[in-house]
Write a structure and sequence with these properties.
It is a single chain. By secondary structure, this protein is of the alpha/beta class. It is 44% helix and 15% strand. The radius of gyration is 21 Å and the shape is globular. 56% of the residues are buried.
Length: 482
Protein backbone atom coordinates (compact mmCIF):
# COMPACT_ATOMS: atom_id res chain seq x y z
CA UNK A 1 0.00 0.00 0.00
CA UNK A 2 1.15 3.60 -0.54
CA UNK A 3 3.16 5.12 2.27
CA UNK A 4 1.17 7.26 4.69
CA UNK A 5 3.80 9.99 4.44
CA UNK A 6 2.68 10.72 0.88
CA UNK A 7 -0.55 12.13 2.23
CA UNK A 8 0.82 14.51 4.82
CA UNK A 9 -0.35 18.07 4.18
CA UNK A 10 2.56 19.99 2.69
CA UNK A 11 2.74 22.79 0.14
CA UNK A 12 2.71 21.53 -3.44
CA UNK A 13 2.26 24.27 -6.00
CA UNK A 14 1.66 24.26 -9.74
CA UNK A 15 3.05 26.91 -12.07
CA UNK A 16 2.04 27.97 -15.58
CA UNK A 17 4.30 27.34 -18.56
CA UNK A 18 3.76 30.98 -19.56
CA UNK A 19 4.70 32.44 -16.20
CA UNK A 20 2.04 35.08 -15.55
CA UNK A 21 -0.84 33.08 -14.02
CA UNK A 22 -1.07 32.59 -10.25
CA UNK A 23 0.36 29.43 -8.72
CA UNK A 24 -2.35 26.97 -7.71
CA UNK A 25 -2.76 23.89 -5.54
CA UNK A 26 -3.82 20.48 -6.85
CA UNK A 27 -7.59 20.94 -6.42
CA UNK A 28 -7.61 24.28 -8.23
CA UNK A 29 -5.47 22.90 -11.06
CA UNK A 30 -7.85 19.96 -11.31
CA UNK A 31 -10.78 22.31 -11.91
CA UNK A 32 -8.96 25.00 -13.89
CA UNK A 33 -7.49 22.99 -16.77
CA UNK A 34 -5.86 25.79 -18.79
CA UNK A 35 -4.04 28.53 -16.89
CA UNK A 36 -5.41 32.08 -17.12
CA UNK A 37 -2.39 33.21 -19.16
CA UNK A 38 -3.06 30.51 -21.76
CA UNK A 39 -0.33 28.24 -20.41
CA UNK A 40 -0.45 24.74 -18.98
CA UNK A 41 0.15 23.84 -15.36
CA UNK A 42 3.13 21.75 -14.24
CA UNK A 43 4.38 20.94 -10.73
CA UNK A 44 6.75 23.49 -9.23
CA UNK A 45 9.03 20.57 -8.32
CA UNK A 46 9.16 16.99 -9.58
CA UNK A 47 8.81 14.29 -6.90
CA UNK A 48 11.77 11.92 -7.08
CA UNK A 49 11.46 8.26 -6.06
CA UNK A 50 14.19 6.09 -4.61
CA UNK A 51 15.07 2.74 -6.15
CA UNK A 52 13.26 0.96 -3.32
CA UNK A 53 10.14 3.10 -3.81
CA UNK A 54 10.10 2.24 -7.52
CA UNK A 55 10.61 -1.47 -6.82
CA UNK A 56 7.58 -1.38 -4.49
CA UNK A 57 5.29 -0.91 -7.51
CA UNK A 58 5.98 -4.48 -8.66
CA UNK A 59 2.89 -6.61 -8.10
CA UNK A 60 0.87 -3.73 -6.66
CA UNK A 61 -2.82 -3.69 -7.68
CA UNK A 62 -3.26 -0.98 -10.30
CA UNK A 63 -5.55 1.15 -8.12
CA UNK A 64 -2.98 1.18 -5.32
CA UNK A 65 -0.23 2.03 -7.81
CA UNK A 66 -2.33 5.00 -8.94
CA UNK A 67 -2.70 6.17 -5.35
CA UNK A 68 1.07 5.92 -4.87
CA UNK A 69 1.73 8.06 -7.95
CA UNK A 70 -1.03 10.64 -7.59
CA UNK A 71 -0.61 10.99 -3.84
CA UNK A 72 2.79 12.55 -4.48
CA UNK A 73 1.19 15.42 -6.42
CA UNK A 74 -1.78 16.44 -4.23
CA UNK A 75 0.00 18.21 -1.39
CA UNK A 76 -2.29 16.44 1.06
CA UNK A 77 -5.40 18.15 -0.34
CA UNK A 78 -7.15 14.80 -0.87
CA UNK A 79 -7.16 12.36 2.03
CA UNK A 80 -5.55 8.98 1.47
CA UNK A 81 -8.76 7.09 2.24
CA UNK A 82 -10.71 9.18 -0.26
CA UNK A 83 -8.12 8.83 -3.03
CA UNK A 84 -7.91 5.08 -2.40
CA UNK A 85 -11.69 4.71 -2.56
CA UNK A 86 -11.94 6.71 -5.78
CA UNK A 87 -9.10 4.79 -7.45
CA UNK A 88 -10.64 1.42 -6.61
CA UNK A 89 -14.07 2.57 -7.85
CA UNK A 90 -12.55 3.91 -11.08
CA UNK A 91 -10.63 0.77 -11.98
CA UNK A 92 -13.45 -1.57 -11.01
CA UNK A 93 -15.07 -0.38 -14.26
CA UNK A 94 -12.35 -2.11 -16.31
CA UNK A 95 -12.88 -5.48 -17.94
CA UNK A 96 -9.50 -6.96 -16.96
CA UNK A 97 -8.29 -7.68 -13.43
CA UNK A 98 -4.85 -6.22 -14.20
CA UNK A 99 -6.50 -3.05 -15.62
CA UNK A 100 -3.59 -2.51 -18.06
CA UNK A 101 -2.17 -5.98 -18.81
CA UNK A 102 1.11 -6.65 -20.63
CA UNK A 103 1.02 -9.13 -23.53
CA UNK A 104 4.22 -10.46 -25.09
CA UNK A 105 4.14 -10.41 -28.90
CA UNK A 106 7.80 -11.15 -29.66
CA UNK A 107 11.29 -11.39 -28.16
CA UNK A 108 11.62 -8.56 -25.62
CA UNK A 109 8.53 -6.97 -27.21
CA UNK A 110 5.35 -6.35 -25.23
CA UNK A 111 2.02 -4.65 -25.83
CA UNK A 112 0.58 -2.68 -22.91
CA UNK A 113 -3.18 -3.01 -23.35
CA UNK A 114 -4.76 0.24 -22.22
CA UNK A 115 -8.17 -0.44 -23.77
CA UNK A 116 -10.01 -2.51 -21.17
CA UNK A 117 -12.03 0.43 -19.83
CA UNK A 118 -15.68 1.26 -20.59
CA UNK A 119 -14.94 2.98 -23.94
CA UNK A 120 -12.11 0.70 -25.09
CA UNK A 121 -9.42 3.40 -25.14
CA UNK A 122 -6.49 4.48 -22.97
CA UNK A 123 -8.34 7.70 -22.10
CA UNK A 124 -10.49 5.68 -19.68
CA UNK A 125 -7.48 5.12 -17.41
CA UNK A 126 -7.33 8.80 -16.54
CA UNK A 127 -10.93 9.83 -17.19
CA UNK A 128 -12.62 7.37 -14.84
CA UNK A 129 -10.48 8.65 -11.98
CA UNK A 130 -10.63 12.30 -13.07
CA UNK A 131 -14.44 12.29 -12.96
CA UNK A 132 -14.42 10.99 -9.40
CA UNK A 133 -11.74 13.46 -8.31
CA UNK A 134 -13.67 16.39 -9.77
CA UNK A 135 -16.99 15.30 -8.27
CA UNK A 136 -15.26 14.88 -4.89
CA UNK A 137 -13.79 18.39 -4.96
CA UNK A 138 -16.98 19.99 -6.33
CA UNK A 139 -19.09 18.31 -3.66
CA UNK A 140 -16.71 19.53 -0.97
CA UNK A 141 -16.93 23.08 -2.34
CA UNK A 142 -20.63 22.92 -3.23
CA UNK A 143 -19.84 24.07 -6.77
CA UNK A 144 -20.83 23.19 -10.34
CA UNK A 145 -18.72 23.25 -13.49
CA UNK A 146 -19.22 23.09 -17.23
CA UNK A 147 -16.70 20.77 -18.85
CA UNK A 148 -15.84 21.56 -22.45
CA UNK A 149 -13.47 19.33 -24.38
CA UNK A 150 -12.26 18.58 -27.89
CA UNK A 151 -11.73 15.07 -29.17
CA UNK A 152 -10.00 13.42 -32.09
CA UNK A 153 -11.99 10.31 -31.29
CA UNK A 154 -11.38 8.74 -27.88
CA UNK A 155 -11.33 11.53 -25.28
CA UNK A 156 -14.94 12.49 -25.96
CA UNK A 157 -16.39 9.06 -25.43
CA UNK A 158 -14.29 8.53 -22.31
CA UNK A 159 -15.35 11.90 -20.85
CA UNK A 160 -19.04 11.41 -21.57
CA UNK A 161 -18.95 7.89 -20.13
CA UNK A 162 -17.10 9.00 -17.00
CA UNK A 163 -19.28 12.05 -16.26
CA UNK A 164 -22.70 10.84 -17.45
CA UNK A 165 -25.23 11.46 -14.71
CA UNK A 166 -22.90 13.70 -12.69
CA UNK A 167 -24.81 16.06 -10.41
CA UNK A 168 -21.98 18.58 -10.41
CA UNK A 169 -20.80 18.72 -14.03
CA UNK A 170 -22.29 19.35 -17.46
CA UNK A 171 -20.19 18.06 -20.35
CA UNK A 172 -19.95 19.41 -23.90
CA UNK A 173 -17.62 17.56 -26.27
CA UNK A 174 -16.64 18.92 -29.69
CA UNK A 175 -15.62 16.41 -32.36
CA UNK A 176 -14.70 16.89 -36.05
CA UNK A 177 -17.72 15.93 -38.14
CA UNK A 178 -17.00 12.88 -40.28
CA UNK A 179 -13.45 12.47 -38.95
CA UNK A 180 -14.00 9.91 -36.19
CA UNK A 181 -14.98 6.27 -36.57
CA UNK A 182 -18.62 5.21 -36.25
CA UNK A 183 -17.85 3.44 -32.98
CA UNK A 184 -16.05 6.48 -31.58
CA UNK A 185 -18.95 8.75 -32.58
CA UNK A 186 -21.61 6.48 -31.12
CA UNK A 187 -19.80 6.31 -27.78
CA UNK A 188 -20.40 10.07 -27.60
CA UNK A 189 -23.87 10.29 -29.15
CA UNK A 190 -25.81 7.37 -27.64
CA UNK A 191 -25.73 8.20 -23.89
CA UNK A 192 -29.08 9.66 -22.84
CA UNK A 193 -28.20 11.50 -19.63
CA UNK A 194 -29.25 15.16 -19.71
CA UNK A 195 -25.87 16.48 -18.54
CA UNK A 196 -23.81 15.21 -21.52
CA UNK A 197 -23.76 16.76 -24.99
CA UNK A 198 -21.87 15.82 -28.16
CA UNK A 199 -21.32 18.48 -30.84
CA UNK A 200 -20.12 17.77 -34.39
CA UNK A 201 -18.01 20.68 -35.65
CA UNK A 202 -17.54 21.42 -39.35
CA UNK A 203 -13.73 21.22 -39.22
CA UNK A 204 -10.73 19.25 -37.98
CA UNK A 205 -9.68 18.24 -34.48
CA UNK A 206 -7.28 21.19 -34.44
CA UNK A 207 -10.29 23.45 -35.11
CA UNK A 208 -12.16 21.85 -32.19
CA UNK A 209 -9.15 22.26 -29.93
CA UNK A 210 -8.76 25.91 -30.97
CA UNK A 211 -12.41 26.57 -30.06
CA UNK A 212 -11.89 25.04 -26.61
CA UNK A 213 -8.76 27.11 -25.99
CA UNK A 214 -10.56 30.26 -27.15
CA UNK A 215 -13.36 29.60 -24.66
CA UNK A 216 -10.85 29.17 -21.84
CA UNK A 217 -9.11 32.40 -22.85
CA UNK A 218 -12.43 34.34 -22.83
CA UNK A 219 -12.34 34.98 -19.09
CA UNK A 220 -15.83 36.47 -18.92
CA UNK A 221 -17.36 33.40 -20.56
CA UNK A 222 -15.09 31.11 -18.55
CA UNK A 223 -16.30 32.57 -15.27
CA UNK A 224 -19.93 32.74 -16.36
CA UNK A 225 -20.24 29.02 -17.09
CA UNK A 226 -17.60 27.89 -14.54
CA UNK A 227 -15.54 26.31 -17.31
CA UNK A 228 -13.41 23.24 -16.59
CA UNK A 229 -11.37 21.04 -18.91
CA UNK A 230 -10.76 17.32 -19.26
CA UNK A 231 -8.48 17.29 -22.28
CA UNK A 232 -4.87 16.45 -21.52
CA UNK A 233 -4.31 20.15 -20.88
CA UNK A 234 -5.67 19.09 -17.45
CA UNK A 235 -2.71 18.06 -15.32
CA UNK A 236 -4.69 15.34 -13.52
CA UNK A 237 -5.08 13.50 -16.84
CA UNK A 238 -1.31 13.37 -17.24
CA UNK A 239 -0.49 12.24 -13.72
CA UNK A 240 -3.08 9.45 -13.82
CA UNK A 241 -1.42 8.10 -16.97
CA UNK A 242 1.99 8.05 -15.28
CA UNK A 243 0.76 5.05 -13.29
CA UNK A 244 0.89 2.54 -16.12
CA UNK A 245 4.50 3.40 -16.96
CA UNK A 246 5.50 2.46 -13.41
CA UNK A 247 3.29 -0.65 -13.43
CA UNK A 248 4.63 -1.92 -16.77
CA UNK A 249 8.28 -1.10 -16.15
CA UNK A 250 8.42 -2.74 -12.72
CA UNK A 251 6.66 -5.83 -14.09
CA UNK A 252 9.57 -6.12 -16.54
CA UNK A 253 12.33 -5.67 -13.99
CA UNK A 254 12.65 -1.94 -13.28
CA UNK A 255 14.35 -0.34 -11.46
CA UNK A 256 17.03 -3.01 -11.86
CA UNK A 257 16.92 -2.82 -15.64
CA UNK A 258 15.79 -0.23 -18.13
CA UNK A 259 12.63 -0.46 -20.22
CA UNK A 260 11.81 1.31 -23.51
CA UNK A 261 8.37 2.59 -24.52
CA UNK A 262 6.89 3.39 -27.92
CA UNK A 263 3.85 5.66 -27.74
CA UNK A 264 1.29 6.41 -30.48
CA UNK A 265 1.35 10.19 -30.25
CA UNK A 266 -1.08 12.93 -31.20
CA UNK A 267 -1.57 15.57 -28.50
CA UNK A 268 1.68 14.60 -26.71
CA UNK A 269 -0.10 13.89 -23.41
CA UNK A 270 0.51 10.14 -23.21
CA UNK A 271 4.21 10.34 -24.02
CA UNK A 272 4.62 13.34 -21.71
CA UNK A 273 3.33 11.07 -18.92
CA UNK A 274 6.26 8.79 -19.77
CA UNK A 275 8.60 11.77 -19.57
CA UNK A 276 7.15 12.58 -16.14
CA UNK A 277 7.76 8.98 -15.01
CA UNK A 278 11.37 9.33 -16.14
CA UNK A 279 11.71 12.63 -14.24
CA UNK A 280 10.40 10.81 -11.16
CA UNK A 281 13.26 8.32 -11.46
CA UNK A 282 11.86 5.47 -13.56
CA UNK A 283 14.75 4.09 -15.67
CA UNK A 284 13.35 4.47 -19.19
CA UNK A 285 15.87 3.63 -21.91
CA UNK A 286 13.94 5.32 -24.69
CA UNK A 287 10.64 7.06 -25.37
CA UNK A 288 9.64 6.76 -29.03
CA UNK A 289 7.21 9.27 -30.51
CA UNK A 290 5.15 7.20 -32.95
CA UNK A 291 3.27 9.28 -35.53
CA UNK A 292 1.22 8.51 -38.60
CA UNK A 293 1.35 10.59 -41.81
CA UNK A 294 0.69 13.68 -39.67
CA UNK A 295 4.37 13.77 -38.83
CA UNK A 296 4.85 17.18 -37.23
CA UNK A 297 6.59 15.77 -34.14
CA UNK A 298 9.10 13.48 -35.93
CA UNK A 299 9.88 16.42 -38.26
CA UNK A 300 10.48 18.63 -35.23
CA UNK A 301 12.84 16.08 -33.67
CA UNK A 302 14.73 15.78 -36.97
CA UNK A 303 14.91 19.46 -37.94
CA UNK A 304 14.29 21.54 -34.83
CA UNK A 305 11.43 23.29 -36.64
CA UNK A 306 7.81 22.85 -35.56
CA UNK A 307 5.84 23.64 -38.70
CA UNK A 308 2.16 22.97 -39.25
CA UNK A 309 0.82 21.40 -42.42
CA UNK A 310 -2.67 20.37 -43.45
CA UNK A 311 -4.15 17.46 -41.50
CA UNK A 312 -4.15 14.18 -43.44
CA UNK A 313 -6.97 11.70 -42.75
CA UNK A 314 -5.65 8.25 -41.80
CA UNK A 315 -6.83 4.96 -40.33
CA UNK A 316 -5.50 6.17 -36.95
CA UNK A 317 -7.72 9.27 -36.53
CA UNK A 318 -6.78 9.97 -32.91
CA UNK A 319 -3.34 10.96 -34.22
CA UNK A 320 -4.58 13.16 -37.08
CA UNK A 321 -3.29 16.28 -35.36
CA UNK A 322 -0.95 19.18 -36.16
CA UNK A 323 -1.12 21.07 -32.85
CA UNK A 324 0.16 18.89 -30.01
CA UNK A 325 -0.95 20.87 -26.95
CA UNK A 326 1.16 19.07 -24.37
CA UNK A 327 4.34 19.74 -26.31
CA UNK A 328 4.25 23.14 -24.57
CA UNK A 329 4.83 21.41 -21.24
CA UNK A 330 7.90 19.70 -22.66
CA UNK A 331 9.24 22.94 -24.20
CA UNK A 332 8.96 24.55 -20.77
CA UNK A 333 11.05 21.79 -19.21
CA UNK A 334 13.59 21.56 -22.05
CA UNK A 335 14.17 25.33 -21.94
CA UNK A 336 15.00 25.16 -18.21
CA UNK A 337 11.53 26.49 -17.43
CA UNK A 338 11.96 29.69 -19.44
CA UNK A 339 8.41 31.05 -19.59
CA UNK A 340 9.46 33.95 -21.83
CA UNK A 341 10.78 31.42 -24.35
CA UNK A 342 7.49 29.49 -24.20
CA UNK A 343 5.43 32.65 -24.70
CA UNK A 344 7.61 33.52 -27.68
CA UNK A 345 7.37 30.20 -29.52
CA UNK A 346 3.66 29.83 -28.81
CA UNK A 347 3.10 33.34 -30.14
CA UNK A 348 5.06 32.46 -33.26
CA UNK A 349 2.96 29.32 -33.73
CA UNK A 350 -0.24 31.33 -33.44
CA UNK A 351 0.92 33.99 -35.90
CA UNK A 352 2.91 32.03 -38.49
CA UNK A 353 2.06 28.35 -37.85
CA UNK A 354 5.71 27.52 -37.14
CA UNK A 355 8.60 28.11 -34.76
CA UNK A 356 12.20 27.03 -34.33
CA UNK A 357 12.83 25.30 -31.02
CA UNK A 358 16.42 26.59 -30.85
CA UNK A 359 19.70 24.66 -30.52
CA UNK A 360 19.57 23.93 -26.78
CA UNK A 361 15.97 22.68 -26.80
CA UNK A 362 16.62 20.67 -29.99
CA UNK A 363 19.49 18.92 -28.23
CA UNK A 364 17.27 18.06 -25.27
CA UNK A 365 14.52 16.86 -27.59
CA UNK A 366 16.77 14.42 -29.45
CA UNK A 367 18.23 13.16 -26.20
CA UNK A 368 14.84 12.62 -24.54
CA UNK A 369 12.94 11.08 -27.49
CA UNK A 370 13.37 9.07 -30.63
CA UNK A 371 10.68 9.50 -33.28
CA UNK A 372 9.31 7.93 -36.44
CA UNK A 373 6.41 8.58 -38.81
CA UNK A 374 4.62 5.50 -40.14
CA UNK A 375 2.88 5.42 -43.52
CA UNK A 376 -0.59 3.97 -44.05
CA UNK A 377 0.96 1.12 -46.04
CA UNK A 378 3.36 0.33 -43.21
CA UNK A 379 0.51 0.40 -40.67
CA UNK A 380 -1.46 -2.18 -42.67
CA UNK A 381 1.64 -4.34 -43.19
CA UNK A 382 2.39 -4.24 -39.47
CA UNK A 383 -1.14 -5.29 -38.49
CA UNK A 384 -0.97 -8.26 -40.87
CA UNK A 385 2.58 -9.22 -39.86
CA UNK A 386 1.93 -9.24 -36.11
CA UNK A 387 -1.32 -11.15 -36.63
CA UNK A 388 0.49 -13.79 -38.71
CA UNK A 389 3.53 -14.10 -36.43
CA UNK A 390 1.93 -13.77 -33.00
CA UNK A 391 -1.81 -14.32 -33.57
CA UNK A 392 -2.30 -10.87 -32.05
CA UNK A 393 -4.64 -8.28 -33.52
CA UNK A 394 -3.70 -4.64 -32.97
CA UNK A 395 -5.51 -1.48 -34.03
CA UNK A 396 -3.92 1.07 -36.41
CA UNK A 397 -2.69 3.34 -33.60
CA UNK A 398 -0.93 0.46 -31.87
CA UNK A 399 0.52 -0.64 -35.21
CA UNK A 400 2.05 2.83 -35.56
CA UNK A 401 3.68 2.33 -32.18
CA UNK A 402 4.97 -1.12 -33.11
CA UNK A 403 6.43 0.00 -36.45
CA UNK A 404 7.97 3.15 -34.99
CA UNK A 405 9.63 1.15 -32.21
CA UNK A 406 11.36 -1.03 -34.78
CA UNK A 407 12.41 1.93 -36.93
CA UNK A 408 13.58 4.32 -34.22
CA UNK A 409 15.05 1.78 -31.81
CA UNK A 410 18.15 3.02 -30.01
CA UNK A 411 17.86 1.24 -26.68
CA UNK A 412 20.06 -1.74 -27.52
CA UNK A 413 19.26 -5.43 -27.57
CA UNK A 414 18.03 -7.09 -24.40
CA UNK A 415 16.05 -4.03 -23.31
CA UNK A 416 12.32 -4.83 -23.14
CA UNK A 417 10.24 -2.72 -25.53
CA UNK A 418 6.68 -1.82 -24.55
CA UNK A 419 4.26 -0.62 -27.21
CA UNK A 420 1.34 1.29 -25.74
CA UNK A 421 -1.91 -0.07 -27.20
CA UNK A 422 -4.21 2.90 -26.97
CA UNK A 423 -7.44 1.48 -28.42
CA UNK A 424 -9.28 -1.79 -29.00
CA UNK A 425 -9.30 -2.86 -32.69
CA UNK A 426 -13.12 -3.07 -32.60
CA UNK A 427 -13.23 0.74 -32.41
CA UNK A 428 -12.03 0.80 -36.03
CA UNK A 429 -13.94 -2.06 -37.70
CA UNK A 430 -13.80 -0.68 -41.25
CA UNK A 431 -10.04 -0.17 -41.20
CA UNK A 432 -9.48 -3.57 -39.59
CA UNK A 433 -11.71 -5.36 -42.10
CA UNK A 434 -9.97 -3.67 -45.03
CA UNK A 435 -6.56 -4.66 -43.63
CA UNK A 436 -7.22 -8.20 -42.39
CA UNK A 437 -10.44 -9.28 -44.08
CA UNK A 438 -12.03 -9.73 -40.65
CA UNK A 439 -14.33 -7.38 -38.76
CA UNK A 440 -13.52 -7.40 -35.03
CA UNK A 441 -16.48 -7.68 -32.69
CA UNK A 442 -17.29 -5.29 -29.90
CA UNK A 443 -17.31 -6.77 -26.38
CA UNK A 444 -20.72 -8.15 -25.40
CA UNK A 445 -21.36 -5.28 -22.97
CA UNK A 446 -21.37 -2.89 -25.95
CA UNK A 447 -23.57 -5.04 -28.20
CA UNK A 448 -26.32 -2.42 -28.56
CA UNK A 449 -23.97 0.47 -29.34
CA UNK A 450 -24.42 0.31 -33.12
CA UNK A 451 -28.23 0.26 -32.96
CA UNK A 452 -28.94 2.72 -30.12
CA UNK A 453 -30.43 6.09 -31.11
CA UNK A 454 -27.97 8.95 -31.49
CA UNK A 455 -28.32 12.44 -30.03
CA UNK A 456 -25.95 15.24 -31.03
CA UNK A 457 -25.77 18.77 -32.43
CA UNK A 458 -24.06 20.00 -35.59
CA UNK A 459 -22.45 23.44 -35.37
CA UNK A 460 -20.20 25.52 -37.64
CA UNK A 461 -16.56 26.21 -36.79
CA UNK A 462 -17.63 29.45 -35.13
CA UNK A 463 -16.75 30.49 -31.58
CA UNK A 464 -19.90 32.54 -30.96
CA UNK A 465 -22.19 29.71 -32.07
CA UNK A 466 -20.40 27.19 -29.86
CA UNK A 467 -20.38 29.51 -26.85
CA UNK A 468 -24.10 30.14 -27.25
CA UNK A 469 -24.75 26.39 -27.26
CA UNK A 470 -22.54 25.77 -24.22
CA UNK A 471 -24.19 28.55 -22.26
CA UNK A 472 -27.64 27.19 -23.06
CA UNK A 473 -26.72 23.80 -21.61
CA UNK A 474 -24.70 24.88 -18.57
CA UNK A 475 -26.47 24.55 -15.23
CA UNK A 476 -23.65 26.55 -13.65
CA UNK A 477 -24.50 29.44 -15.99
CA UNK A 478 -28.22 29.42 -15.14
CA UNK A 479 -27.43 29.30 -11.42
CA UNK A 480 -25.03 32.23 -11.74
CA UNK A 481 -27.68 34.36 -13.46
CA UNK A 482 -30.50 33.35 -11.13
Amino acid sequence: MPSTRLFLSKPFAYISTRGTAPNLGFEDVLLAGLARDGGLYVPEVWPRLTEDEIAAFAGLPFADAAVSVIGRFTGGSIARKDLTRMAHEAYATFGHAAVTPLVQVGPDTFVLELFHGPTLAFKDVAMQLLARLMDHVLEKRNERVTIVGATSGDTGGAAIEAFRGSKRADVVILFPDGRVSDVQRRMMTTPTEANVHAVAIDGTFDDCQALVKAMFNDHGFRDRVHLAGVNSINWARIVAQVTYYFAAATALGAPYRKVAFSVPTGNFGDIFAGYVARRMGLPIADLTIASNANDILPRTVATGVYEMREVVETTSPSMDIQISSNFERYLFEASSRDDAYVRGVMGSLSQSRRFEVGPAVAEHLRRDFSAAAVSEQRVAETIRMVKAQSAYLMDPHTACGYAAAAEARRDGHGVPRVILSTAHPAKFPDAMEETTGERPSLPARLASLMTDAERFERLPNDLAAVQKFVESRARASSEASA
